[in-house]
## 1
Amino acid sequence: APSELLHIKGSVLAENGALADPLQRNKGFFTWSDRAYGMELHNSAGKWGLAVFARSESDIRLGHYSANETKQNALSTKMIIQNDGKVGIGTTAPLELLHIKGSVMAENNPIADPLLRNSGFYPWLDRAYGMELHNSAGKWGLAVFARTDSDIRLGHYTGNENSQSAISTKMTIQNDGKIAIGSVSTAPAGYKLFVEQGILAEKVKVAIKTSANWADYVFDKNYQLMPLANLEKYIQQNKHLPGIPSATEVVKEGIDLAEMNAKLLAKVEELTLYILAQEKRSNAQQILISTVNDKLNTLQQQVKQLKKNKLK
């Protein structure tokens, strides 16, 4: 009277001729006395190789033991899947969807000194939660931790694993989203990214919010150029161009690339207008000179003619 698609009452033997000690099922799928449903695989000597059971509260546990087979409490649980989906390895009370208590090792055969996790994800003594990767000699290659103020820091150190204060911070992600790269732990106010000692890039593109942030307004017909005499006086007094920050201001505040490029372009465009205006004045003066020369030539011819007439 099978109750499922496959119903086996009794033991099952899976045998491979090459194995002297085949794996067996001792009692099929059965009920422990303390209301847990279990399955076991063990060798012919009766030593358990694997035990899996589901408790009455729907937790699924995997482990091994060689004690009383009718009592699931004697099981040495190695992994648990709770009914809320949380998985615990090395712990029967996982705090997150995956909770590993103990070390994790990721090994690649060509690497003689594999990376290891020393103590899993754990709290430091100074109330910071961290994760470390290091080699088998115990020298840290990477340390990541979240402080109690919610900052996330990345760096490395070779000090006491129980103190995040010994870490050499290389990057900080603040709880307000700001990022600082370098030995600094706080990005300056008003900025989302701070990089200590600068950035080397093959290409940088700066976004301009609106056309009003660019310098085309200089070519508007109503734009008023500063008279050159006033410009000369301003330069003599301030030692920099109007609208351009002084050296002292730049050292103190730095420069905004987009804003500074727009200001420099405005000065180039103003210089272009000065040159065009000078060209107009020059052309007008040339016309005037030509006109004066023509009149002078005419007068000279008239004078010559008068002299000739007088001699006659």
Note: Residues 16-30, 108-123 have pLDDT under 50 and may be disordered.
## 2
Amino acid sequence: ARYRRQGAPFRRSIAFLGVGGKSSREDLPEVPSRRSNRSTNGSRMTKTALILGVSGQDGGYLSHLLLGKGYTVVGTSRDALIGSFNNLRRLGIFERVQLESVALNDFRSVLQVLIKVKPDEIYNLAGQSSVGLSYQQPVESLESISIGTLNLLEAIRFSGMRVRFYNAGSSECFGNIETVADETTPFRPRSPYAVAKASAYWQVATYREAYNLFCCTGILFNHESPLRPERFVTRKIVSSACRIAGGSNEKLRLGNLVVQRDWGWAPEYVEAMWLMLQQQTPDDYVIATGETNSLEVFVETVFLEVGLDWREYVVSDQSFFRPSDITWSQGNPERARHHLGWKARLRMRDVIHEMVRSEKESLLSSGAANT
């Protein structure tokens, strides 16, 4: 086997029990042999990347990065025919990304897309992505994240494809911590979202050890950009502040302002995802800036960026408090720096500057379009 650990032989069971029901090889599509990654003259062929969850913030930036490196990029959504893929359009790459439909909670659907695409690398960015929403939709959170990851791992194992797999983990898995978190820090998840992410993390670790798969998890701390939807608090703050600076009479209603987070810049974090799959051996990595700020400082900095005093416009609203929240969060990215050569260049204030600049440009464009 290509990824043997401690000399253990690679074994692949003929029997298969798919998630959600029994299946056999006779019930599933025939798996073709893995294509060679070299052309007939021996030169390297273009790599193909399959991105699950391509329509999100990270999916957009990762697609942009990989296309720039010469990859063929295939992205998926539940229904590629009706998806808007606004982030891909905004980045100017929509026409360059091939799109496929896949239901991650359906093993057959997952296996079919792997057989069709024959990827060299798989990036699993799919699933429910909001901590707050996971309290309202806990079952959907678990199914889309945990079951989806398991189906992908089983499809890789079942097909025998020599493919490298990246799984999007989350710093939310650590829960409330008293020291800076690294790859050895125990998980104490405090939300349905975090529980699902922790489950997916251990699935990846198990398949890596049991089946010698090249699979790894990036434990990413908060990373933001203009591509965040407004249901994320950072984009909500930036959008509201810019509208208020433009003359809006609205008040910005927020929950707990004393929570502290390690905020980074999303385009840098997707580069770390790619670097993980270029290593000789698979491993898990914490991706963070190593700097923590409170949400109050975030709000203050955003309003200062638009020339306003936040205290005149922000209201604390108990309805936005989560049933259980993380008070303080900070990551130690030393392993990523040492092994991947990766280090965050932008910090919270840099991220805010870029988000405010983009938001202002967007408001100007929409205003000009309406005149």
Note: Confidence is low (pLDDT under 50) at residues 1-26, 31-44.
